[in-house]
Amino acid sequence: GLPTFHPTEYATREDIAVALVRMMGFTDSDANDKNYAGRKFYDGSSISPSLMPYVSIACERGLISGYPDGNFGPTQGITRAETVVLLNRATKQAVTNINADLQISANVLYNEDEKTATIAEPEVDANTEIVATQTEHQSYDTLYIAVHVSDIMYSNHDIPDITLSITGKNGSDTLTLTRDNFDSDRRAYSGSCNIGSFSAGDEISIAFSSSSENTYLTLIQGSNPVVVKNDPVTYKIESYTYSDPGDPEPTTATYGGYINSPLSFDLNKEVTPSTITLILKDESGNVLPNVQIKCTTPTNSVIKSYTSDANGAVAVDYSAFGDFIDVISCDKDYEVIGTNSRKMITSPKEGRVYTVALKKAEK
Prior knowledge:
Elements: H1 13-23, H2 36-40, H3 52-60, H4 80-94, E1 107-110, E2 117-120, E3 139-149, E4 162-168, E5 171-177, E6 182-183, E7 188-199, E8 203-210, E9 215-219, E10 226-228, E11 233-236, E12 263-269, E13 275-281, E14 292-296, E15 303-307, E16 313-317, E17 324-329, E18 334-336, E19 343-346, E20 353-360
Parallel strand pairs: 3-12, 13-20
Antiparallel strand pairs: 1-2, 3-7, 4-5, 4-8, 6-7, 8-11, 9-10, 9-12, 13-16, 14-15, 14-17, 17-19, 18-20
Helix pairs in contact: 1-3
């Protein structure tokens, strides 16, 4: 996507996503949601804006996925194991219309710096018939699960116990995740259950319960988001693969290792909307209508945009932000008067009105 090539640099995950999409013949106009990847991953804002539509297409179509901690790692160098998995995935999609897996071999020659590679095309005789051979779908017996928790929903000392009951066509199992299973750095639970043999395309039943009231799960893998509350839901496993860079054919995988595509959920809490009002004014105290601002958390894990009405007022549902809201300007003509061009609102209260002062932005 860049005007320069940089042949000696690592290819990044966003670079590979773009290459896979273009290899499949897609353009940015083929994205169902051009900002899908930006909203799907915690570090989605780090994806290059010009590459966002391509990364979104790659994620929508299952060509590439994120990590169990909810991040995509757009600028992270890609490993050999990841390259093999992604090429295999793209190849399978390319021959979906004949319901077969295409067997392709090529030599990947890594140079001495182990950062650059040369892919040597296989020699094929002009009279050689290339045949796509059909193979069975990979089957698994262990279902790896990650549940991500926003720090807006729960602090570390407030993490609830949750229980997942999973039923497949060849068995069922119950997974209980407690604080002992919670990684406070990754903000996620992790665990596994054995439901007998399963593979991509199978349907499973998911039931959920929690020690905390008004909680529910959102399944973040797949093209159709699935919400799991009190009643069991049926979910079709659209894709499921895992790999460990140290073992091309692993028999086990752990959350601390590389799991390419586990079953991943977000833990959410139903909350009653709580509204505060922001009044936007200039340095002279005049209200500012039709001015855009953004409200975010100190960690930038939640970002929402608003436009003031004719009276300079903005209604903000602060239940999504928690106890701290940073107000910043996204209007090219103004910037917020405050520390680092931000106004911090702490412990917002229902119905309260806050004045936010803006000044003309320096050109």
